[in-house]
Design brief:
By secondary structure, the chain is α/β, with parallel strands linked by helices. Helix content is 39%, strand content 13%. The chain is globular and about 55 Å long.
Length: 246
């Protein structure tokens, strides 16, 4: 018998569809600019037309699953790009979308809206400190490290276990949040997580799925799946987090 506590039987981790922030970041990178051209705060950045189409394609995939495999509960970051993705992707499931601020994007602090080139130009000492500490533990001025995000995810998993016991839980969040979920759920080391991060960019509207095994452990079943996008000829986009020193 398992000695594990209660919790979801399946967890789906979905990155939001392509956002206007992703589009602005790609343009800034191509132009070598130091800052993204956005006129809204990060929590309000909407999906692009491509992002909405990606979310709708995911929704058709989920609705087409056998009833016993579909998500039965949904949690989303409250940020517009994630919440819109969650709403579109679950439109045909008849489930309520709840938000939880612990799923929000990592806070970039003083680097919000900046590209790596801009950070190295305006904050060379901080860029050097980030190189020294590494991506996992470095905290931008006024912002969060990946380790800080891990504390949020551990809190969420602990408090949501009873609420979603035996549920198939769909979580819609952001690239760094999904990577940190892997760190927590798989008990990865810092080095193991950063190796995964070097090898993979989490695609927009992709899903990563964990299933509870016979011993009560959530095991990785699929990672960064985009077959539902390819099947409908939707663009597969994977613009990484902004505000990373190059």
């Amino acid at each position: 018998m398992s000695d594990r506590g209660p919790g979801p039987s399946v967890i789906w981790l979905v990155r939001h569809g392509e956002s206007m922030g992703n589009v602005a970041d790609a343009k800034a990178q191509q132009a070598g600019a130091g800052r993204l051209e956005l006129d809204v705060r990060d929590p309000d950045v909407p999906l692009s037309d491509t992002g909405r189409a990606q979310a709708e394609a995911l929704g058709r995939h989920l609705a087409g699953l056998p009833e016993e495999e579909r998500p039965t509960a949904v949690l989303s970051s409250p940020f517009a790009r994630a919440l819109t993705t969650a709403t579109l992707a679950t439109d045909g499931l008849g489930v309520r979308v709840r938000t939880d601020e612990r799923l929000r994007e990592r806070d970039f602090g003083a680097f919000d809206g900046m590209t790596g080139a801009g950070i190295r130009e305006q904050f060379p000492d901080e860029a050097g400190r980030r190189d020294l500490l590494g991506k996992f533990y470095y905290r931008p001025p006024g912002g969060e490290s990946w380790a800080d995000v891990a504390l949020r995810i551990r809190s969420l998993l602990a408090t949501e276990a009873l609420r979603h016991d035996c549920e198939r839980l769909l979580v819609v969040a952001h690239q760094a949040v999904i990577m940190v979920f892997r760190y927590v759920l798989e008990e990865l080391t810092e080095q193991e997580l950063l190796e995964v991060d070097r090898e993979h960019q989490v695609a927009n509207a992709s899903f990563t799925r964990y299933e509870m095994d016979a011993d009560g452990y959530l095991r990785l079943a699929e990672f960064n799946v985009v077959d539902h996008l390819v099947a409908e000829d939707e663009h597969v986009t994977e613009e990484p987090d902004a505000a990373q020193p190059a």
